[in-house]
Amino acid sequence: MALRHLHSLFKAGGAVKVAVPGTLTTPKVANLTNWVSQFRSKSVNLILSASLALAVSFTSGAGISEAKVGVNKPELLPKEYASVIDVAGFLSAGQEKRLAQEIADLERETGFKLRILVQNYPDTPGLAIKDFWQVDERTIIFVADPTFGNILNFNVGAQVDLDIPRSFWSRLAGKYGNIFYWKEKGEDAAVEAAVKAIAYCLREPVGPTNCSEIK
Fold first, then answer.
1. Burial category of 108 from C-beta neighbours within 10 Å (exposed 0-12, middle 13-18, buried 19 and up)
2. pTM for this entry
3. I need a surface site. Which of 86, 117, 163, 208 has the fewest CB within 10 A?
4. Tens-binned pLDDT, residue by residue, of the chain (215 aa)
């Protein structure tokens, strides 16, 4: 999936509705299913959502015409380049430093560029991160935003999509991004756990079983 709708992360709207297994179909259960869906990964389908969006495409721009313009606040970008941007204040200075080091090590070892934006919509630099981070096909944009329930949201470049199973991202969001996890452990814990899992996955040899477990 070649980062089709990066705008998905920087626009107000409802979460992707994720089917919840079950056989009950009463109205109450249906309402509960809808509620649970909103509090599971809004990025489970990796930016197939038109309701949470960032208006950037690395393909032909498909879908952008239907999407509303997302937030673009370059003034919220740091003065100097950083691979971790926390405009929500969820991370400590020490955590940001550790994450930045992990990202640097990961990029050196694998060639993949993980970039982290911690935001609380609508306080986000939004579209401005594309040029700031020089996003390309080997980039993973990880946006941590609790606004719509699940805090973990991902956009992946085409090369990442070739090497990493799409199911990995949905399973990752389901494990560490759900509202029950980050409400109990904290937003920062969800971010750190996700980064560890991503790093482990990216370091695994590409094959039929890579990234099959969320560490």
1. exposed
2. 0.73
3. 208
4. 444 455 556 655 433 333 323 333 444 444 544 444 443 433 333 333 332 343 233 322 222 223 334 688 999 999 999 999 999 999 999 999 999 999 999 999 999 999 999 999 989 999 999 999 999 999 999 999 999 899 999 999 999 999 999 999 999 999 999 999 999 999 999 999 999 999 999 999 998 888 999 98
